[in-house]
Fold this sequence. Notes:
Layout: H1 7-12, E1 18-27, E2 34-43, E3 45-47, E4 51-55, E5 59-63, E6 66-69, E7 71-79, E8 83-85, E9 87-89, E10 93-99, E11 114-116, E12 146-151, E13 154-159
Antiparallel strand pairs: 1-2, 1-11, 2-10, 3-9, 4-7, 4-11, 5-6, 7-8, 7-10, 12-13
Amino acid sequence: xxxxxxxxxxxxINKPLRISITNAYQSNVGKLKGFCVSxxxxxxxxxxxxxxxxxxxxxxxxxxxxxxxxxxKILEILLNESExxxxxxxxxxxxxLIQLQNAYDAENFHPGDVLSSIEYPAAFxxxxxxxIVTSDLDYPILKGMQIMIHINKAKSSAIVxxxxxxxxxxx
Length: 171
């Protein structure tokens, strides 16, 4: 049967949805049959039967300098790999059955992509500040060095532009 939305879930609905995709797969067994993605809800609320957008890898084409993104519809949500729900909130890991327009659309979903609300799409940045904790480096981190950044299952190359400060944790 249908599950009623909790008061807490209703309060979170207006916050922008962000889900970091950890896996995209075709499911032929279990409770979800079809094309699915899994991930963790980082902010907002995921609701069943609603349209969302995928960023950034599913850019279809550019029109007058504005990106047009692939829109898709959520068919079913599975919580904790067992319970079908009408909605899920921040911190929950979900498997999501996606309605695709055609079989080729599955190729647009990749680990590290972000499922986003249409009303408040995720913003992108070329520069950001990070705090790095290291131990026993074989070589120093230097300005101009190319590094690999890992976030969940996503990875991307980056260049160190500036070292703000070095903190000696032993002192």
